[in-house]
Amino acid sequence: MKKRHLLTIKDLSSGEIVDIMKLARKLKRAPLSRKRALRGKTFSLLFQKPSNRTRISFEVAMAHLGGYALYLSPQEIKMGTREPVRDVSRVISRYVDGIVSRVFSHGDIEELARYSDVPVINGLSDLEHPCQAVSDIFTISEKMKTLKNVTLAYIGDGNNVLNSLLMASAMTGVNMRVATPEGYRPPADIFDEASKIAKTKGAVFEMFPDPYEAVRGSDVVYTDVWVSMGQEEEREKRLKDFEKFQVNERLMRAAKKDALIMHCLPAHRGEEITDVIDGKNSIVYDQAENRMHVQKAILLRIFGRG
To answer: Which residue among the candidates 126, 224, 287, 293 is catalytic per the annotation?
Structure first.
């Protein structure tokens, strides 16, 4: 079988994203329906960054598919410090059938894939979070029953999650309205490319300096942390720069009456979001659960068994 990596959303076609979501829907209804699909297969979870959802969802996904997940913690491997990325990749790919990796630098995931003999899946890098984004679009489609004419407002940092969401939304025809503080916008090339793709799908992408303008008329409001792992030294500056971009009751009143609330977690209540995250319109925990179902579908797709 030809080796297949998933490093960015662009490694999938629009049709493949739709197929993954269809398969995830079936797997969610019947979690053990493919319990022998990856029998005898082992994936390593090679992490530079610690994790809750990514680790657990992939481990359980592999177990449900009949495979095995081997967790390699940041302290054990120290990829890029104790050993060069290329050496880690060459060795580990001799032992396992695939690698899921969470890294600080996207360059590390690219190097890992370049030297690997097996498929590599990006579990998070500083540039993208593709598994999260596909799962988020799946969750929106599940709740809204359609993606047609759905508007997603993203409020906060122009980070890896937003980069992947922009591309995933564009490829599935979801409108996006983005509000970030000046200096924290997503990379212009990513936003411009996603906007062009969105047009071909009949969707509209817009950027706003004002979060209230961005959420007006939106069906879904999404935010993420203001200070990610590795940005701790910027904490005080970021808290000041983002203070007007909090998702709270007042902001949500500017969105549609029943607008849904999303957050990829972990959440810092009192910073990027208030306790609206625990309200009736929050779908945050369904969103977290769906990581597992979508990643099962991705694993099957990567192995050509979807």
So the answer is: 224
In the residue annotation, 224 being an active-site residue is answered as yes
One-letter amino acid of 292? M
d(CA 244, CA 181): 9
pLDDT at 102 over 80: yes
Question: Chain-wide mean pLDDT for the chain?
Answer: 96
Contact 27, 54 (CB under 8 A): no
pLDDT band, very low/low/confident/very high, at 2 (cuts 50, 70, 90): low
- The rounded percent of the chain whose pLDDT value lies above 90 is 91
**132 labelled catalytic:** yes
**Active-site residue (options: 238, 291, 293, 295):** 291
- pTM score, two decimals? 0.96
Place of tokens 């999404």: 222
Q: Is 291 a catalytic residue?
A: yes
What one-character-per-residue DSSP string does 230-265 give? T-GGGHHHHHHHTGGG-B-HHHHTTS-TT-EEEE-S
Active site residue 258: no
Bridge partners (DSSP) listed for residue 89: none
Assign 75 a pLDDT band (cuts: 50, 70, 90): confident
Q: Which of 5, 34, 48, 132 is catalytic?
A: 132
In which residue are the tokens 């779908």 written?
283
Mean local confidence (pLDDT), 75-95: 90
What is the H or E stretch that residue 44 is in? Answer: strand 42-47
From 34, 64, 106, 129, the catalytic residue:
129
Task: Please report the domains of the chain, with CATH numbers, ordered by start residue.
Answer: 9-129+291-302 (3.40.50.1370), 132-287 (3.40.50.1370)
Is 15 exposed, middle or buried, given 0-12, 13-18 or 19+ CB atoms closer than 10 A?
Answer: exposed
Is 131 a catalytic site residue?
Answer: no
The residue assigned the tokens 């690698």 is 99
Active site residue 157: no
